[in-house]
Amino acid sequence: MKAIWNNTVVAESNDTVVVENNHYFPADALKQEYFEDSIAHTTCPWKGQASYYSLRVNGDLNKDAAWYYPSPKPAADNIKGRVAFWKGVKIEQ
User: Fold this and answer.
1) What is the model's pTM?
2) pLDDT-derived band at 4, boundaries 50, 70, 90
3) Rounded distance between C-alpha atoms, residue 77 and residue 82, angstroms
4) SS3 (DSSP) at 39
């Protein structure tokens, strides 16, 4: 699977975990040069607190376009160390 934004592959892996129709990529599948830490956080009742990354590709910023759960609740342990995308990031095979 590939995560693509701004005509650029920002993550690629054959090992994604699908939860609620989102592909969670292993952290080592991310092309780190496109990722910036964000101060944003949200909370999911069953997964826990999410942290975010923004994407910067070819000078364009996609704020908070990727999220992950640093310490997921037990029910979501299968996505620990994984990152998912939204905000126009296309997921393709």
Assistant:
1) 0.96
2) very high
3) 10
4) strand
CA angle 12, 7, 66 (to 5 degrees): 55
CA angle 61, 68, 31 (to 5 degrees): 55
How far apart CA 37 and CA 66 sit, in angstroms, is 10
Are the C-beta atoms of 24 and 1 separated by less than 8 Å? no
Task: Indicate the residue type of 53.
Answer: Y
Q: What is the DSSP letter of 31?
A: -
What is the residue extent of each domain of the chain? 2-92
Tens of pLDDT, residue by residue over 27-80, are: 999 999 999 999 999 999 999 999 999 999 999 999 999 999 999 999 999 999
Euclidean distance between CA atoms 38 and 64, whole angstroms:
7
Q: If you classify domain 2-92 with CATH, what class do you get?
A: mainly beta
